[in-house]
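Reopening this ticket.

The earlier resolution said the output was attached, but the attachment link was broken on my side. Pasting everything inline this time so it's all in one place.
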Amino acid sequence: MALVNFRREAARAPRNGQMAALLEGASIEVMPRTAAKVESFRDLLRPGTRVYIAHIEGTPFDEMLATARRLHDEGFEPMPHFPARIIRDAAQLRDWVARYTGEAGVTQALILGGGVKQPVGDFHCAMQLIETSAFDGFKRLHVAGHPEGNRDIDPAGGEAEVMAALRLKQDFANRSDAVMAIATQFAFEAGPIRDWAARLTANGITMPIHLGIAGPAKLQTLVKFAIACGVGPSLKVLQKRARDVTKLLLPFEPTELLADLAANRPTNIQSVHFFPLGGITTSANWIAQQRDPE
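Inline output:
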């Protein structure tokens, strides 16, 4: 009963269509093993939704390809990850691209370094993949962004190297025919997100932001993923909630964060991308509630 009441209260949060407008064009992420448990994506997502396919180290490429093919056949836009550090060489990269495009109708890609510490082959960063020209002809290319920094790239903290990498990608975007955007790691507080969006503009980075958001999930689940993914200052939002015993058993939903951003939205935040940490069905239902509240 408490869960139902909590969801109904969240569904009344949008005012003047701001939340619905922010969520227009929202994307979501799946892994092959979780996608295999979904009977029909048509029952969960709007037709044409962009669905990122996370390529975790050790996932067989054939499973990635089968997931992309299925999503395409069901009427969605598959966007597989291309993590540089798990791709052996240019030949393997071109083989993956050829099979995705030829067998699964893929025309979009998220190009990133990947979370592996040691590269398995010739590549260690997204720009190296981009510069191979393997993605020539793709309609859309996304690259990774980190509103709260990335210790893998800037081990001492700060964001000098991250910003330098984004400027290189912006230079490529300026001369590319592909539509490019920045897909970000998730965060839990609007202030750091707004500040980061402003710093992008100050650094001449004009690629639109597709803001990463953690979908509804148990608090313990979100804390675990936040620590693993290097989420920084905004982690205190979860820690504060954990101290409130009245909220400890309720799922954490991103309603307050997105309502805050929707009410004072940075102009370079174009869309929202959901990490369904509490399950894709839970996230898909929540998005539908916010777009069309009762």
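Reporter confirms the inline version is readable. The longest helix spans residues 160-175. The beta strands are 27-30, 50-53, 77-83, 108-112, 140-145, 179-184, 209-214, 269-275.
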